[in-house]
Amino acid sequence: MNDQSPQKPNWGLTPEELATHKTIFAPDLLEGQRFLITGGSKGMGKAMAFLCARLGAKVMICGRREELLQETQSQAKELIGADIRYRAMSVRDEDQVDALLDETFEEFDGLDTLVNNAGGQYPQNAIDFTRKGWKSVLDLNLNAPWWLMQGAAQRWRDRGAPGHVVSNVAHVERGMPQAAHTCAARAGVIYLSRTVATEWGPLGIRVNCVAPGAIATEGLSDYPPEATQRFNNVNPMFRMGDSWDVAEGVVYLSAPSGDFITGEVLTIDGGMRMWGTVWPAGVPEKFQTY
Ligand SMILES: CCCCCCCCC/C=C/C(=O)SCCNC(=O)CCNC(=O)[C@H](O)C(C)(C)COP(=O)(O)OP(=O)(O)OC[C@H]1O[C@@H](n2cnc3c(N)ncnc32)[C@H](O)[C@@H]1OP(=O)(O)O
Ligand SMILES: NC(=O)C1=CN([C@@H]2O[C@H](COP(=O)(O)OP(=O)(O)OC[C@H]3O[C@@H](n4cnc5c(N)ncnc54)[C@H](OP(=O)(O)O)[C@@H]3O)[C@@H](O)[C@H]2O)C=CC1
What we know:
Layout: H1 15-20, E1 34-38, H2 43-54, E2 58-63, H3 66-80, E3 85-88, H4 94-108, E4 113-116, H5 131-159, E5 163-168, H6 180-200, E6 205-212, E7 215-216, H7 225-230, E8 241-242, H8 243-254, E9 265-268
Parallel strand pairs: 1-2, 1-4, 2-3, 4-5, 5-6, 6-9, 7-8
Helix pairs in contact: 2-8, 4-5, 5-6
The structure holds ligand 8Z2 and NADPH dihydro-nicotinamide-adenine-dinucleotide phosphate.
Ligand 8Z2 is lined by residues 120-124, 130, 132-133, 136-137, 140, 170, 176, 179, 214, 219-220, 222, 278, 280.
Main location: other
Protein name: Peroxisomal trans-2-enoyl-CoA reductase
InterPro entries: NAD(P)-bd_dom_sf, Peroxisomal_t2-enoyl-CoA_red, SDR_fam
């Protein structure tokens, strides 16, 4: 288990850990499979990229910062001998999304699984949201995954090929105080996924989600230490998960193990959906009841 101290400068699993972490899956499970993973240059997306590549898949990742993508590519080459492809872009830009899909389908002569993983938000009480901030979070966490899943589905339909979409969301059933924008966006993705899982079922396209609880990734270092310290206490297991927990969930849904699973949300949260609230901007006094 990795050190989850908030003082640690780099959260999450190291590249060496991603290269050697034990996995329950057979080494050739994804041989010949093609994955596009958005936000694959750090955190959970990077773990997914390493795991899929280790299991034999061809992998394309994207992110905004080329240096992180390049670093991930060379680490994968050096540590696991994999040739991970990348494109620097923002999923918030519709034209760049189309270009990413075109490049991936061309490069790999098709695609088997799209992983909508890129996302994020900032903590704030909803009453104070600016319209600009609301639109930014909705663009990143609802519109972008939609452009990507619709674009992939159109390409699969036109080629007469099956496909799979898995979107990384969050558990939303009890709301997400101080993150209502992302909660609304993720709820949108879940219900879009459940709807198109039916519409696209006859095309051979499955559509699923994974819903992580608090997962120790580099992304959490964006939050203040008071909040991240509390992230260890937001579920009845009193610890965070790691990026491997989520990567293995994504592979389970994408491999033949998931062949008959669609419209599902796989929650990987240590029980947080039943007990525990994050309060990423700090617990308000009225709620400090125990
Ligand atoms: C929460 C988890 C619970 C989660 C509860 C569950 C536990 C899970 C924890 C989840 C962890 C993670 O997701 S880990 C990943 C964490 N990392 C991230 O989220 C990084 C990605 N996030 C982002 O890029 C930003 O949040 C996002 C707003 C989407 C994009 O930022 P940009 O600066 O590119 O966006 P722009 O389009 O320029 O708009 C910026 C506007 O957004 C608003 N804005 C941006 N940051 C703001 C801030 N800190 N406080 C107030 N307002 C802010 C302002 O109005 C800004 O306008 P101006 O004032 O005019 O600039
Ligand atoms: N960590 C947690 O506890 C939880 C996280 N989540 C969600 O899971 C997903 C992964 O989280 P996590 O691994 O922690 O996040 P990280 O912040 O560690 O990684 C996010 C990845 O997404 C990329 N990214 C961010 N914005 C964009 C963009 N506009 N276009 C393209 N790529 C982008 C980042 O690269 P770059 O910045 O260079 O673009 C990076 O590769 C996110 O959607 C997150 O909100 C959900 C529940 C809990």
